[in-house]
Amino acid sequence: MCEPNLKRIAVKHFSKFGYEGTKLSHIAQEAGMKKQSLYFHFKNKDDLLLQVNKMILDEEISFLEAFFDENAATSLKDTLYTLLLAYKSRYLANNNTGFMFLLTFIPPAPLKSHFGQNYHLYLKQLKALLRVKFLGESNLRIKLDDGPTSFITLMDGLFTQLIYETPEDFDNSLRIFWDIYWSGLVKLE
């Protein structure tokens, strides 16, 4: 089995069982190989986790860049709302988003700084893309640099709903908070 497929299996296991609950023997079994064969590709569980994290970070940044390119002509309001829905879909459809948020908020102790640094890279890219989008909004009630931070705070709160509650809770919270958020963000005409 090739390394990217092993990483996909590992993402699924880390997302479902967390760091402590993930067993290399279970990943190997699902991949149709013996546990010892994993050591041909990865030094140990930490090495596998770090390589998976790098892969996901790259994929999530690529997603963000593509999303903002595709929505370059879309209004700020529609872009932000669509991004929240896109992340909900990504969370439900694949394990990347759940992996990234879960292991950023609850990282294995020895790798905490590494996960924090990688999440900072992701946030830096997201903030830069959001800043460009906010720059195009002429009706802002807030400082330009507060826009990306406010949105990321909203997004983090909504993702807590997906991780610890249900998609329905996410939808309900989005319904409640979206108008409040948007009304506080821009001057109403």
**Class based on secondary structure composition and strand pairing:** mainly alpha
Biggest sheet record:
none
**Count of beta strands:** 0
Q: Topology as H/E string?
A: HHHHHHHHH
Rg result: 19 Å
Q: What would CATH call the class of one domain?
A: Mainly Alpha
- In whole angstroms, the N-to-C terminal distance is 58 Å
In terms of DSSP E residues, the strand content is: under 5%
Give the CATH architecture of one domain: Orthogonal Bundle
Unreliable spans: none
Description of the structure:
This protein is mainly alpha-helical and about 190 residues long. The protein has a domain at about 55-185: Tetracycline Repressor, domain 2. It is about 80% helix and about 0% strand. The protein has helices spanning about 5-20, 25-30, 35-40, 45-70, 75-95, 95-105, 110-135, 145-165, 165-185. The longest helix has 26 residues, at about 45-70. The radius of gyration is 19 Å and the shape is elongated. The mean pLDDT is about 90.
Spell out the blueprint of helices and strands.
Layout: H1 3-21, H2 24-31, H3 35-38, H4 45-70, H5 76-93, H6 96-105, H7 112-135, H8 146-164, H9 167-185
Helix pairs in contact: 1-2, 1-4, 1-6, 4-6, 4-7, 5-8, 5-9, 7-8, 8-9
At a glance:
The protein is mainly alpha-helical and 189 residues long. Helices cover 78% and strands 0% of the residues. This is DNA-binding transcriptional regulator, AcrR family.
